[in-house]
Amino acid sequence: MREELKPYLDMANGLTEITRQRATEVAKALIAQGMALSAKGGVSDKDVRDVADEVLSSVKENREFLLELVRTEVQKATGAMGFVHTDELDALRRHIERLERQVTTVKAQLAEFATAAEADAPKPKASKKTESKKKTAKASE
Q1: Does residue 140 belong to any structural domain of this protein?
Q2: Of 133, 113, 21, which is closest to residue 11 (Cα–Cα)?
Q3: Is 14 left (phi over 0), alpha (psi -120 to 50) or beta?
Q4: Taking Cα atoms as reference points, which of 50, 11, 60, 1 lies closest to residue 28?
Q5: Are both 34 and 56 inside the same structural domain?
């Protein structure tokens, strides 16, 4: 009897891909073996559909559980390796862009300040040493 249940157990555990047709075949085999005989004394198409739907539902739930399990394990592994999540990386990129804009703004303000400071700065007067050097240079010519 265990061999007859193996396809059902494989499907229920999500170990194999299954189509509706294959689930129906397994359900028919189970019902034929007396696993789900109805009180009517026979097997109806509805009984077969119900069992097939139950099998498919179980497979879907198991597949979703397996996907979540794999997703969790991958996240743990990538976290242990030092990888960051996409949302964390995106947040860092946005922060860097904000900082770059601030640096650009500060540079522009500094350039304006430097230009204004140069324009407002008094011109240095020639010192006495400079004037005497000029006179000496003219005299030696």
Answers
A1: no
A2: 21
A3: left
A4: 50
A5: yes
* Nearest alpha carbon to residue 16 among 68, 55, 72, 74: 55
Q: Are 52 and 20 spatial neighbours (Cβ–Cβ below 8 Å)?
A: yes
The reply to whether 69 and 105 lie within a common domain is no
Q: Are residues 14 and 63 in the same domain?
A: yes
In whole angstroms, what is the distance from residue 43 CA to residue 15 CA? 28
**What are 96's two structure tokens?**
């860097």
Binned average pLDDT, 10 residues per bin, the chain of 141 residues: 56 61 74 58 71 80 84 84 88 98 96 86 67 60 59
**Lookup result for tokens 């030092």:** 82
Q: Are residues 12 and 70 in the same domain?
A: yes
* d(C-alpha 26, C-alpha 97), whole Å: 59
**Domain extent for 68:** 2-80
Q: Which residues contact 84 (CB under 8 A, 6 or more apart)?
A: 92
Tokens for 119?
A: 């324009």
